[in-house]
Amino acid sequence: MPIVNRVADLQPDIQAWRRDIHEHPELLYDVHRTAGFVADRLKEFGCDEIVTGLGKTGVVGVIKGRQPAGNGDVKVIGLRADMDALPVAEMTGLPYASKTPGVMHACGHDGHTAMLLGAARYLAETRNFAGDAVVIFQPAEEGGAGAQAMINDGLMERFKIDQVYGMHNGPGLPVGSFAIRPGPLMAATDSIDILIEGKGAHAAKPNNGIDSVLVGAQLITALQQIVSRNVDPLESAVISICEFHAGNARNVIPQTAELHGTVRTLTPKVRELVAKRVREVVDGIAQVTGAKIDLTYTPGYPVTVNHAAETERAIQIAKDVAGEKNVHEMPPMMGAEDFSYMLEARPGAFIFIGNGDTAGLHHPAYNFNDEAIVYGTSYFIKMVETALAAS
Ligand code: NI
């Protein structure tokens, strides 16, 4: 059984919602228009309960099945989409391109939101399941931990969610296909901010100073040894120092320098090891050079870990929608996702849906592929109708 027939009928509507959202992108928690749009649609569909303002600007819709939940473990399924855009200047030239300068839906969250709205409409229309389907529209996926904010506002307890499922589009993955893996799927991301206080001096008299530029250079080199010499070669870790600010004249050794970077890891063990070694390396270089080095190590999103049984269910449903040969096992990615917080709170799975041969995520020429809509919407629907099968 491939895509849901009724979803093919709904496709033009879902595509129109997607393009409307695309034209009006909003950042982080400031997704007021988008959240309003979502809440209005959920009202039109006849959701049983609509809650706004959860996690500042998140929206939740509850759709009750035509019969109460059975006696199984799973009575309430949460389906999640993200609503926020990125501070990227759009260069697609599309007729529905962003009307907000410097902001665009460069990660396809417009598509995720529209597909979940499509599923909500169908589920409210048919109610061919037992228990509750809870559609979750979160703000601030792009660095603001909107998922965490909604959980902190009681998302899981308030709606008695038993399992959660999320989806992201994947450029380069053919349209009509899915990719997923059990276990660690996406990385934890932590931030490194370093302030080096050396001693300014004349460029010709380095012996009178402590060269903050040289200290920074040594730090960057030494930090790279953590991945190559401390982390098990069969594990994964990335340390990227991407900003180095120092100096403003060729003949002045600057007093200070600043470094900023990111750490990506796939297990708590490696995450702890890297954090510990970064501190030790910073202390060591400070001692060797005599500079004062201030390190701020900030934990970000945790590892996105797919639960085994729920991933198996997701694979079966994806195969049902897209065909056996179009569901692939993927390697983990070093990108991060705040759906990780939801998977820490409840069992569930995160899946990638093919976006075809498009520009990459966060690129100014990226666009969500409307041809993927029928597959993503069908996946959400079948997830509910399968996990909460009516008798
Ligand atoms: Ni994204």
Task: Describe the protein's architecture and organization.
The protein is of the alpha/beta class. The chain folds into two domains: 5-186 and 303-387, Aminopeptidase (3-Layer(aba) Sandwich); 188-298, Alpha-Beta Plaits (2-Layer Sandwich), CATH 3.30.70. 36% of the residues lie in helices and 25% in strands. The chain has ten helices and 16 strands. It has helices at residues 5-23, 32-45, 109-126, 146-152, 155-158, 212-230, 268-289, 308-322, 339-345, 373-387, and strands spanning 49-54, 58-64, 76-82, 132-138, 163-170, 178-180, 183-186, 188-197, 201-202, 237-246, 252-253, 256-265, 292-299, 304-306, 327-329, 348-354. The strands form four sheets. Strands 1-2-4-3-5-16-6-15 form an eight-stranded mixed β-sheet, sandwiched between helices. The protein has a four-stranded antiparallel β-sheet with strand order 10-12-8-13, covered by helices on one side. The chain has a two-stranded antiparallel sheet with strand order 7-14. A hairpin with a 3-residue loop joins strand 1 and strand 2. Helix 2 runs parallel beside helix 3 and helix 3 (109-126) crosses helix 10. The protein starts with a helix and ends with a helix. The model has no long low-confidence stretch (mean pLDDT 97). The protein binds nickel (II) ion. Nickel (II) ion binds at residues 107, 109, 141, 168.
